[in-house]
Kef-type potassium/proton antiporter, CPA2 family (TC 2.A.37.1) (Cohaesibacter marisflavi), 594 residues
Amino acid sequence: MANPTEPLFFSEAIVFLGAAVVAVPIAKRAGVGAIIGYLIAGIVIGPFGLGAIQSVEKIQPVAELGVVLLLFVLGLELNPNRLWRMKSDIFGLGTSQILLTGFVLSGVMILLGLPNTVAIIGGFGMALSSTAFAVQILKDRGDFSSVYGQRAFGILLMQDIAIVPLLAMVDILVSGGATHAESSAWNQIGITVAAVLLVIVVGKYLLSHLFAILANTQAREMMLAAALLVALGSAALMHWAGLSMALGSFLAGIMLAESSYRHTLEADIFPFRSLLMGLFFMTVGMTLNLPITLAYLWQIIVGVIVVMGLKGLVLWLLAKMTGSPNADAMRIAVTLPQAGEFTFVLFAAATSTGFESDLFTVMSAVVILSMIMTPLVGKAYAAYIARRTVTGEREPDAAPEKFDDHAPQVLVVGFGRFGMVVAQMLMSNGLGVVAIDNNARRAVQARRLGLPVYYGDATREDVLRAAGAEDALLIALCVENEQVMAHAIELIKQCFPKAKIFCRATDRAHAVQLALSEVDYHIRETFESGITFGREALDQLGISTERIVEIETEVRQQDLERVVLDSESDAAKNSEKLKETTAPDKSKKKSAVG
């Protein structure tokens, strides 16, 4: 029992962190992934395992914040135009999947002898997949931005939206189709529409101004506080309206997807999202009722096979019918066959009205085990494809095309006068370019002109990663601050070694530093503009073109010699400093020996 003077959640936090630190590395080493590690850790420490955590209900609201922040970050990655392009997947494919899977699973449950009402609630509940599980799996595979990944995400979005009519369906089934229940459903739909419109209006017209004010204060913690406030505030509004909290934070993220701050917000939120997502997966594992699971083990195993098999079949069939190649349809089928977290919401709504709780407890075990099995099914499918490749058989369809709108070929750091010209040169040739600048006003002005410029700090690995440094072929450092550039060069070499580094040198001394840093290319803008200026002046004074070329060559050669001398001088100074720092140690050793 916890000490009464102990801070709230203190002992629980230690247990959760300890379990994660032990379980996740073991799961990763075993090749089953972090999600399985979190789930098993939850089962072990939960009330039906070792009992280290007794009250799951206390922890669950905190854990659900992980899903909220996950959807907020996903919203940042999907601008409204791109979401509109997904409308057929969301409303067409998503709606078809929910209805067809719901009717099929309900029919099977009725044939197995379950009461009609329980079968309908159970069937449609298990038609919903787990947004948290499926998105995390897509992220781990690096397939979230693939064609099949976006189609799968469209289905998940429709499932999140469908929770409102499905909850209304439970009310209608309980009340026998009473007029009051139908009236209540229409009221709920009206409240939902109003809440969605409020999030959209506030996000579109107010949030960018708020973040512009905070960015100008240079208080990084305030940017983080504002990001959490926006994500959690929109989630709370949707929860009040009866929708999923995750959908609210997702809409807020979409509204900020076209702002200049999306990469910084994504980098700030990431650590909280990752830890809370781990906590969410552990709480799912903790809810597995081991005594009931063991008592009905064979029925639950058969239920998992039937649910995942039929749901996967429906997903594959619908994806094929709506234009996906066979390989993509199979990937969607093995990504979304599990039941989801909103299934528990429907089951809880049903049991609160007097339905037999034991039936829904058994169904809940099927839901949890289907989640546990999903990563394993995905790995089995990947192993099958790999074996076919090794034996000379190839997949019937090519690898999925990636279409991440913001994956740059070149990342430009610093969008002042120099960086702007560099970006224009690159974009004129059709190259994908993303730029970041730590001047919020400059980034906002550039965005208004339609340029891909975002607010961000080049000395932060998470910001560079969010801006696409990992996929960039070249990173152009066009900042004026030499310390910032030196830090960025070190960071890029360590974390993004594939990218070539091009640098703007402010003067000869800086050029020497860049040469010693072994960047791929550097240029002194003042030297080059001085050369051009001098060449034009000689031409106006009537000097022949041949002589101008000779003079330019001589000046460049003399400058190069000075750069070499300066480099050697700096190297000698560094060597002397090294000798000075090591000399006392040597003298101590000699005296000790003597």
User: Anything to note?
Assistant: The two ends are 63 Å apart (CA to CA).
